[in-house]
Specification:
seven-stranded parallel beta sheet, 7 strands
């Protein structure tokens, strides 16, 4: 029996690059996205493996449930939660509908889809989950002069980092791997859809991001930052988080005492 992968947001950018790479590696695919024409076009161009296009809008309960049902029923070897939208705006200016869409796609959808896939992977004793986030997940402490605030977007990516780290620990010893993929700026349609011109900004290719993610799984990484050469920087962040977590006490800190 061949390997089976499911990729969300597979119609362009990183998701499409994942689909291309996995097809080349011999995976049968379930590819999910909003654009039926692009899904069908990809499937028609890759007859060497079995490809099932699934039209699903992950900003809706119906779309999430449709993909989650497949994950619960099919023997997935790899799940790639890639679907995303940007909606870069200060919080007060972000329309409620766009805030809801962003949280649905980057928080609710990967949560429910992963939840549906995990039990089967555990029972089979194998599988991998890649959650596509971004380096903006680590940008919270940056001052306004350094980076414009993208409150909801940054928050959703930070959620994916924490979710992936804790899920990886939860699944230790089960044969199921979890990785959160945190690229920087990538050359895709992502920013163009938001009307942001990134043509003069150095950008990584989507294919390189995919290479990093798949290699990161092989290396046993949980947090994969394709453009960070010194991996110890990521360890430093994790160690600092754990140090603060371990330092808590039931006694009120002296700086808060009169």
């Amino acid at each position: 029996m061949g390997k089976l992968a499911l990729v969300t947001g597979a119609t362009s950018g990183i998701g499409k690059s994942f689909a291309e790479r996995l097809t080349a590696d011999g995976y049968d695919l379930v590819i999910a996205g909003r654009r039926k024409d692009r899904l069908d076009e990809f499937a028609a161009a890759h007859s060497e493996v079995e490809i099932r296009p699934v039209v699903a809008d992950l900003s809706t309960d119906e779309g999430i449930d449709a993909v989650a049902e497949i994950c619960a029923l099919e023997p997935l070897d790899l799940l790639v939660n890639n679907a995303g939208v940007a909606h870069y705006m200060p919080l007060a200016e972000l329309p409620a509908a766009k805030a809801r869409e962003l949280v649905s796609i980057k928080v609710l959808a990967p949560t429910m889809i992963t939840r549906a896939a995990v039990a089967g992977m555990q029972n089979r004793g194998r599988g991998a989950i890649i959650n596509v986030a971004g380096m903006i997940a680590f940008s919270g402490p940056a001052p306004h002069s350094q980076m414009p605030r993208r409150v909801v977007y940054a928050g959703t990516l930070a959620y994916l980092v924490a979710m992936s780290q804790t899920l990886s620990a939860e699944l230790e010893g089960t044969g199921v791997k979890v990785l959160v993929l945190c690229p920087g700026v990538v050359a895709t349609e992502f920013h163009e859809r938001q009307g942001i011109d990134m043509s003069v900004v150095p950008r990584m290719t989507a294919a390189d991001v995919v290479t990093a993610g798949l290699r990161g799984l092989e290396l046993g990484e949980v947090v994969c930052a394709p453009g960070v050469e010194d991996a110890s920087l990521l360890d430093t962040v994790s160690h600092a988080d754990l140090a603060a977590f371990a330092a808590q006490s039931p006694t009120l800190a002296s700086r808060y005492q009169q």
